[in-house]
Amino acid sequence: MRLALAFRIDRAMPRRFTMPKSLLKTLARQCRRYTGERYQKALTRLAADPGAPPIPIASPAQAQLEAEVLAGLGQGWVTDSHGAPPTETPFALTSVTPLPDALEVTVQDIALPDVITALLPTTDEQSNTSGIAGLRFRLQPSGVELTRLDLPGVVRITGVTPAQWWQAYAVAEADTDVPILSGHHPDRMHPAEEAHARAYCPGYSPRHDEPRDQALAALTSAFLRRHMIFRTPEVTSIDLWSNPDSLEVEWFGPLTHTQAVTDLCDPVFGLGGTPSKDCECERHSWCFVIPVITDPVFGTCVALRHNRHHDTDDELADNLRDDWRRKHRSERLSQMERWHGARPRTQR
Ligand SMILES: [Zn+2]
């Protein structure tokens, strides 16, 4: 409570207000639970703008890009097959560093091909497009920068060397069996990609830039910037999808509704939402979804789905077995070894 009070007072202060070092250190330590950042990185970020919220709100265009990134990573449980269990890297990420106009993320090496497959756009002979339309990459000394053609917003995958990137890229291209457009059309959209973008994609299609869409994008970005609260041994699997007014998050394992709601509604680090019902898990087995409303005008909410019954789902239980994961991990490692030193076909 003291921390919340101090932060609220500070928000009203002019930007030149100097926050006590001890408070900055406390904020940095607590922030790590939400972002997974290294302590020093969180501290440096907070010290650079002590008047800003510890987890800053993304600008609208940045939020839109982050929403697409999380949608891509959330579908198909990106790391369940080849990477580390979501216990360690929910949605394939090991940390997020939130900035107003950028998001820096770190990814485990082994999950990088899955991240490339999930995010970078491809199109097949029937003009079916997958990935984020318009997304292109640029290699930088500190990692890889992902931006959309002609739109603001950037996601940086930090700590990746060019060699690691090209190796993962080659594995991803072998996996998808269709060209990755970022490599073949680095400066312009493929015609099929452009048609898809104009019809369906926020930023390119005015139909998908309505205030309701923007509210959901803002929530999705805010969730991505805090989702490391699910990096805990108490979560064995996590899945995510969205509806027009809601971001649906479902997890398996003993992490309770109460804990997730408490974290996400925290006055300093939370999403700024309110739970629309109380948890009744202790009394009723049917307590499954708790919506946390973040935009009362549109009813936008994150629906927190705690699935306590996955033991009855045989297929899922099989997929979560450690030996299943080990097998796929070892297959992915040998595949990456085969592509060691690879360069993309178009840029050799
Ligand atoms: Zn509950």
List its salient traits.
348 residues; alpha+beta; five-stranded mixed beta sheet; 13 helices; 12 strands; disordered N terminus
How would you portray this structure in words?
The protein is of the alpha+beta class. It is 40% helix and 18% strand. It is built from 13 helices and twelve strands. A hairpin with a 5-residue loop joins β3 and β4 (129-130). Bound molecules: zinc ion (ZN).
Secondary structure blueprint with pairings:
Layout lengths: L1 H11 L8 H15 L3 H10 L11 H15 L3 H4 L11 E7 L2 E6 L4 H8 L2 E2 L5 E2 L4 E6 L2 E6 L6 E4 L3 H15 L4 H4 L6 H10 L10 H14 L12 E7 L2 E7 L4 H8 L9 E2 L13 E7 L4 E8 L6 H7 L1 H17 L10
Parallel strand pairs: 2-7, 9-12
Antiparallel strand pairs: 1-2, 3-4, 5-6, 6-7, 8-9, 10-11, 11-12
Bound molecules: zinc ion.
Summarize the structure.
This protein is of the alpha+beta class and 348 residues long.
N-end to C-end Cα span: 57 Å
Number of helices: 13
Mean pLDDT: 86
| Fraction in beta strands | 15-25%
How is the biggest beta sheet arranged? Answer: 5 strands, mixed
Cofactors, ions, other ligands: zinc ion
Strand order of the largest sheet: 1-2-7-6-5
Radius of gyration: 20 Å
Helix proportion: 25-40%
Q: What is the overall shape?
A: globular
Number of strands: 12
Structural class: alpha+beta
Quaternary structure classification: single chain
Low-confidence stretches: 1-14
The H/E string reads HHHHHEEHEEEEEHHHHEEHEEEHH
